[in-house]
Amino acid sequence: MEQLKGRIIYRGKAEGEALVTSMPISFYGGVDPNTGVILEKGHELEGQSVKDKILVFPQGKGSTVGSYTLYRMKKNNTAPAAMINKETETIVAVGAIISEIPFVDKIDLSKIKKGDTVKVENENVTIL
User: Active-site positions?
Assistant: First the structure.
């Protein structure tokens, strides 16, 4: 079990399977809000669903509409259970806050591997 501490973007608790990528994610156009599946061509996670996962990625990218896309995903029950970034930016931060998705950044992403069971509790990230 490894404990990491980051910066809270949105408080909360979640536990689940880590879905990890070294590539930034664009929620607007890059993720289907109806299914949670990553659509972006050539993306490391193309074809995989973020639904109920602990989504681990360096940062977001793309249009500010990405914030609303995350909100739609939350309403559609296709959103990640929590998100972890190396260094977040405004689009994903706002999306997590309005969607009430537990979210932390300033985390060393190299410690988390795809398939790990990860617990997010406020600023604490535990790899189980």
Answer: 63
Q: Is residue 93 within 8 Å of 42, Cβ to Cβ?
A: no
pTM of the predicted model, to two decimals?
0.97
List the pLDDT tens digit at each of the 128 positions of the chain.
Answer: 999 999 999 999 999 999 999 999 999 999 999 999 999 999 999 999 999 999 999 999 999 999 999 999 999 999 999 999 999 999 999 999 999 999 999 999 999 999 999 999 999 999 99
Provide the residue range defining the domain that includes 51. 2-40+47-127
Query: Which residues, including other chains, have CB under 8 Å from residue 55's CB and lie 6 or more apart?
Result: 19, 25, 80, 82, 83, 84
Q: How many domains does the chain have?
A: 1
CATH number at residue 95: 3.50.30.10
Structure tokens at 124: 């604490």
